[in-house]
Amino acid sequence: MQVLKRVRPIGPVLAAVVLAFGLLVAPAGAQEGLSGSNPTAQAVNEQQLLEELNRIQGRVSIPDAKAATLEQPRGRDFRSFHEGALPWIGGIAIIGILLLLGLFYFVRGRIRMRSPESGVKVVRFNTIERLTHWVTATAFIVLAITGLNFVFGKRLLMPLIGPDAFSAWSQWAKYTHDFFSWAFMLGILVMLVLWVWDNLPDRYDGQWLRVGGGFFDKSNRTHPPAARFNAGQKLIFWSVIIGGIALTVSGLFMLFPFAYADVNGMQLAQTIHAIVGVLMVAVIIAHIYIGTLGMEGAYEAMGSGTVDLNWAKEHHSVWVEKQGAKTEPSQPAPTPAE
Amino acid sequence: MARMKFLCDADRCIECNACVTACKNEHDVPWGINRRRVVTINDGKPGERSVSMACMHCTDAPCAAVCPVDCFYTTADAVVLHSKDLCIGCGYCFYACPFGAPQYPRVSNFGSRGKMDKCTFCAAGPEADSTEIEYAKYGANRLAEGKLPLCAEMCSTKSLLAGDGEIIAAIYKERVTQRGYGSGAWGWQTAYRETITV
């Protein structure tokens, strides 16, 4: 109490001194230094923020975290890719491969067997392999059609059937794309397990590639040796695996939107998915051609699972020898056709 | 015809979120969808600013360009609207939109989105004006009644302006001249390829 009483008068005196000092000092900084004269001196600047990060991020008081991105001008890049480059990449890849195959068919014709059928069949693909192939193939064709609809639908189909019918079809196409994707993803994984061993590079690949697999020899005499899969088939296998995994990963990002990526991540996933998708369509068109129309005897391998012994000797000489060596002790001759 | 625009004067926005609430109430916007939101930049630091953001109704709108079913259209007042009957909920418009305006109700499997919903500049959609079905799909059509968007009408500090671009730009210019500062018309350069120079 004693102390407090003694101290009390000092308060006002101190305040007076501070104020007086303040008044003396104030004029020096009053022109611009005091806060309040220009409240925007430190304010955030839109142009500067955009130049620094190419997006403006803030804080929102709602649970949706995406809403905290105030501006993302990168949407412009997504748009110019999606409406500018993508239709061209897709169009050139798909029409290009069709033209090339047409030209190839016109010049080379169907690749026929050189020797007549032996009548003896060898098993080339067992049931599990064929099931995997056809599940993946069916899924891919459905995914390709419904996927291409996102790029070319409004340009090609909508003018023909009108906006309402096109929207209804696109809605179903979208659901179909989402659901068939799971069969495709599973198929790619099983395919990898089934065939990776036979698709590792071997010593015959170099020669096979050097002579172009005999594709360009019009006399049809070039048949480089090959094991179970030749270098061309290995290229198809690895593009399906690598492309399939790229489509799977980018597709999963889109199946669970914003679960694993922000808006720029989603744009990237969509961009990768679209580019890989249209390129895969082009690759698979070539694969379908050579597996059906392009080569005599090729379809049987995946259709019935068996091929003629002479076809196998022409196309997969090393594989036939190994198969013969494997089966000979128990079976003197390969199994006849059923 | 007017060229409708939004302008948020960030030096006046006090982050009260009345615009957000007004919008949600006026249009009966469901849970989880925000046609308008207030974003605070540099929150708690010197120079923090809040900006109220919704669809800016862009010139040459990117959402309309990327839509795979072409469900967008621009009205005579330059308001960007869309048809929920045509929308398939693919999400492309959100990837292309610089302002994060498109919203999707999450309804189906594997993160499918349902029909897109966004700010309509209180001009609803392609249905007949001021009908029940229009209200259910797109919310109120204030423009048809000769009123401007409610978010801006409600704004307590008149930070958010909505109306003809030239008129709101003139109001903003006058403010900046009088008070001597202004952090600019947020989003205008991106949305309209022009900004307000004072």
From TrEMBL, chain A:
Gene Ontology MF terms in the entry: electron transfer activity; formate dehydrogenase (NAD+) activity; formate dehydrogenase (quinone) activity; metal ion binding
Entry keyword annotation includes Cytoplasm: no
Bilayer topology: Multi-pass membrane protein
Gene Ontology BP term (one): respiratory electron transport chain
Annotated signal sequence range: 1-30
Gene Ontology cellular-component annotations: formate dehydrogenase complex; plasma membrane
Subcellular location: Cell membrane
Cofactor section: heme
Residues annotated as transmembrane: 85-107, 131-152, 179-197, 235-260, 272-290
NCBIfam families: formate-DH-gamm
Family to which this protein belongs: Belongs to the formate dehydrogenase gamma subunit family.
Protein name in UniProt: Formate dehydrogenase, gamma subunit
Source species: Mesorhizobium alhagi CCNWXJ12-2
UniProtKB/TrEMBL annotation, chain B:
Keyword Flavoprotein: no
Keyword Repeat found: no
Pfam families with a match to the protein in the record: Fer4_11
GO terms for MF: 4 iron, 4 sulfur cluster binding; electron transfer activity; metal ion binding
Keywords recorded for this protein, A-Z: 4Fe-4S, Electron transport, Iron, Iron-sulfur, Metal-binding, Transport
Required cofactor(s): [4Fe-4S] cluster
4Fe-4S ferredoxin-type domain ranges (all copies): 4-34, 78-107
InterPro entries, alphabetized: 4Fe4S_Fe-S-bd (IPR017896), 4Fe4S_Fe_S_CS (IPR017900), 7Fe_ferredoxin (IPR000813), ET_IronSulfur_Cluster-Binding (IPR050954)
PROSITE patterns hit by this protein: 4FE4S_FER_1, 4FE4S_FER_2
NCBIfam families, alphabetized: FDH3_beta
Protein name: 4Fe-4S ferredoxin, iron-sulfur binding protein
